[in-house]
Amino acid sequence: MVNAAPVPCICPPIASCLTLAAKVDGREIITIEGIADGDNLHPMQQAFIDHDTLQCGYCTPGQIMTATACAREGHATSRKDIREYMSGNNRGATATKRR
Are 57 and 32 in contact (CB under 8 A)? Predict the structure, then answer.
């Protein structure tokens, strides 16, 4: 679609490395860089820094984007719900202890 307005994304996060660009043609795509407000980090980005939860350059953006969606979609009501929502993120490259 040329010059078409993007369709707002009201969907759960997807793995960009597993998604063909053609599948999201015409849709709004929000990346880790797009959630900040200029030089001001998104509160979830700041929380990851404040709580020293940074991981590798591949895992951290996925974790932040998924955590942001989890809160936005109302799934952050209990540890169990958060754990379940976040369970699709790969943490294999990190040295942090799983809880």
Answer: no
- Note the helical H segments in 3-95: 43-50, 59-72, 79-86
**pLDDT, tens only, 6-61:** 444 556 677 777 888 898 898 888 889 999 999 999 999 999 999 998 777 778 88
CATH, domain 16-86, list 1.10.8.60, 1.10.150.120, 3.30.390.10, 3.30.930.10: 1.10.150.120
CA distance 39 to 8: 24
How far, in Å, CA of 44 to CA of 56, rounded? 17
